[in-house]
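Researcher: Before we compare anything, I want clean individual predictions. No alignment, no superposition, just each chain on its own. First chain goes here; please echo the sequence and then give the structure tokens.
Model: Echoing the first chain and its structure:
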Amino acid sequence: MNNPILRGILAVLAGIFIGGMVNMALIMISSSVIPPPVGANLKTMKGLQAAMHLMEPKHFLMPFLAHALGTLVGAFVAASIVAQSKMRYALGISAWFLMGGIMSVCMLPSPLWFTLVDLIGAYLPFGYVGYLLSSNFIAKEK
């Protein structure tokens, strides 16, 4: 596809969709990797809110990985599709996921330490890594 506008639209849609799928897949398997606190129902927003005080630091590992790896994959996909402005697209996808993270914090308050680590460490840095991986991947193909 030589049309840069269509490539840009495809890059954004694919980055958001595939990054979101990675995020959701990791969230879905998180309770089988790290069991939730006894008696906690993490299937609903109310149950999650009610169980937040029971959460230990280990329970925040999978959400962080979901946010970071979903952003990384989404940024990588977007930057791999476009021909120019790869960093702009990668960081745009990162900003999209960061907005989702901010909305999540507003809906589901978490400990301050996790909020800071997640919002500062998961989105823009991993989006930049996605850009770097895309640049290195494409450079090796040529």
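Researcher: Okay. Second chain, same rules.
Model: Second chain and its structure:
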Amino acid sequence: MRSKIAVVILNWNGKSWLEKFLPSVIQFSPNAEIFVIDNHSNDDSVSYLNQNFPTVKIVQNDKNYGFAGGYNEGLKQINAEYYCLLNSDVEVSENWIFPIIELFEAHPEIAAIQPKILSYHQKDTFEFAGAAGGLIDNLGYPYCRGRVFDDVERDLGQYDDETEIFWASGCCFFIRSKDFWEHKGFDERFFAHQEEIDLCWRLINSGKKIFYTGRSKVYHVGGGTLNKQSAQKTYLNIRNNLSMMLKNMPFPTLIWLIFFRLCLDGVASFYFAYKNGFSHLWAVARGHFGFYAQLSGTWKRRQKHQAKKYYQSKWLIFKHFL
């Protein structure tokens, strides 16, 4: 039987997050089916769920597929009209689902929606991963309303609107299941980071819309698997961002931009090394090598059609830092 909405949490060795945040999801999601996709954890997450949350359905992956592959694999077993892909380190609030469903049903052209994402530790401040909806600049750098690079704003009601955005955060990602599968889900080669931006870009290129609503809000801890200081996170962000541009960006912008980004990322690598350590300088280089290694496969996945206007701001990195 097909459910209206499935709230789906991907778990990998995250028993402590499930203990802390799953009760709020159950309490405030009375009309949703709740699933945990376990990405082959080696802690006792599954036994803990079976003993303490019998109403939660468990899907067990046979290995750790990462964020992108983990959801793709697990969602094959979940039949619902809408998916909510929810990080395990998120506290939801009362009535968080209804405004999303209302927006979906009023606008069939909307494929994905994001709520307001605030910091769990500073609840009057936007959270890094999504804030009030994702945008992108003409150089391919993702940013958010309420968060530009590492600078976040306080929530003063300035984003209590409903508006079209460019990408919805994977931290709390609502999507119509038919759109997810028609676009073949996440690109599993990304493993983690920016796969939701890539999917949203593909949706936009096909004529769909991505939206944000401030009528729904959640609170995100952030860094539950890879924190912001992780060199592996730097590597994945660099590699995946370049792959995402190659797949989705229109010519002739793509050609000059890839070369320009090579120079900008070189400068950024020294900034990362100064701020977080030498391992991040090497992570930027590895990100480029990883992109080149996947070049053939990425080119085959390139969209046939690209929206000519993909960005909302120009030269953001220069405006912000200079």
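Researcher: What stands out in the second chain?
Model: The chain has two domains: 3-220, 231-321. Additionally, The CA atoms of residues 227 and 308 lie 34 Å apart.
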